[in-house]
Amino acid sequence: MDRERTIIIFPITSFTRVYRIRSNPRPFTIDTSRAKSNQPVVSLCARKIGITEYPSSREDNKTCDIYWHNVVYSDIKNVVGTSTSRVNKFPGMTELAKKISLTHSITSMQTVFPEEYSFYPKSWFLPAHLDQFRTYCEEDERKREEENSDKKGWYIVKPDEGAQGTGIYLINNPSQLKNEQQRMLVQEYVADPFLMADQLKFDFRVYGVIKSLNPLSIYVAREGMARFCTEKYAPPTSSNFENLYSHLTNYSLNKGHGAYVHSTNLQDQVKGSKRLISTVFHQLESRGLKTKKLWHDIKLIIVKTVLAMLPEVMLHYEHHFYDAPGPQCFQIMGFDIMVRDNGEPILLEVNAAPSLTIDHLMGGVTDGDYVPVYKVRSVVDEVIKIPLVRDTLLLVLNLLEEEYNTKG
User: Fold this and answer.
1) What is the largest CA-CA distance in the chain?
2) How far apart are CA 269 and CA 374, in angstroms?
3) Whether the Cβ atoms of residue 12 and residue 388 lie closer than 8 Å to each other
């Protein structure tokens, strides 16, 4: 088989063991001077596996084996000076994972492989596709009238630059657009989510690691996060479509709601607003959903999504390092997946820089705004993100198999 076309899907380890800090340091180094909010968890993981950390860069001007950055810096060629060093960002990935760029990549694949890419909702870029969106809505409304259907088609509007749920709203008619000239994405709203006994809408944050582009090597973490709304779900109507606590699963939105449940231990998280994917999979199995097939389909979505983005990612890399050998890039990605009531997974978004914080901001709502007061441990985040970062470091240093074989 042509190695340049090899796709490797390999789950990062299950994260069920407790690891002590390694007593004898390994001969590897990591620069976390630009890790920003990622620094606490990266530093912790580096200590656990015996990697020497330089939180303020190296005074001897020697290169490190790994550079952990919070964004892609314009001077990356000067900072990461050798092709043997690794850096945790691909140039251009942040832009390519934004809503409109991602949709452009996937819709291009949908024209060629419609069945293979049916996991992404029908979408329009605005303002470029405004006329097409209006035409679609008119035809859809006419079709519903012919079928004597009382149901309306609903759409979700997402600003291209938006994050953490900001600026998102629902509409059922193009006339409800707040700004027709704003750069944004409009998608058909998936109104039939799989619900459990609590009737709360939820989605999954699944973590993948792109280890390399050529050969393309993708690893998927077995553990991830399920994020729940804080008010019971009902299909959108003219009376409830503005209730985002029922329609959006974003942690940044729901943590300010009085019904948000912060879990202080793993026993509590079975009913928390953040849960482990493994926990929710057990809950789904009890309701008759075939989770082995679901997990298989989710991994295929991740691979197909990366494949759709791959040509542009490679062009960005070659453009960025056109005049010198570039470093070995890798990146942790977050894939947001919702499950429909028939068990079918749907891709909602891709996050090129998923949060790696492992705490929860306790606070309250003042004048309608959530005001954080103090930080507390988030057990769910710790169980997911510490092993994720730890095993990613081992992975890119080609130590993962050695580590787990040694642990027995």
Assistant:
1) 75
2) 20
3) yes
Q: How far apart are CA 169 and CA 162, in angstroms?
A: 12
Helix residue ranges, H only, 175-248: 244-247
Amino acid at 140: D
Determine if the pTM surpasses 0.85: yes
Tokens in use for 252? 């940044």
Residue 4 pLDDT level (bands cut at 50, 70, 90): very low
What are 57's two structure tokens? Answer: 């860069």
Distance CA 356, CA 27 (A): 25
Report how far apart the first and last C-alpha atoms of the chain are (Å, whole number): 32
Distance CA 408, CA 406 (A): 5
Residue type at 209 in one-letter notation: V
Q: Where are the alpha helices (DSSP H) in 229-351?
A: 244-247, 251-254, 277-285, 291-320
Task: Tell me how far CA of residue 315 lies from CA of 77, 103, 158, in angstroms.
Answer: 16, 18, 27
Nearest to 180 by CA among 225, 259, 141, 126: 126
